[in-house]
What we know:
Layout: H1 8-38, H2 44-64, H3 72-97
Helix pairs in contact: 1-2, 1-3, 2-3
Amino acid sequence: MTETSVPAQAVSETDRHIARTIIAWLWATLSAVAVVVWAPAGQRFEWLTLAIGGTILCAFMLQLGTAQRDGFISRLSYSIVGGSILIALVELVAFLVE
């Protein structure tokens, strides 16, 4: 009896998708930290909106770069929602510290 295994290409594609999602989340976190550090207090909301927009564009470009149709919507959703949650958490921490 032969052992059924996952092809090496399928595993590497999954790893690439996870890496691209993490890159989008890292972009979101770094842009939120930059907004908290450098944006004036009265204009922070506008800059956070721009950070979310940049996260959406970054996630879209990263997921389009895979050139794989299967699971595109779910990968894009994970990237955008996760990035938005991270931006909100950074802002919450900044609000509680101030």
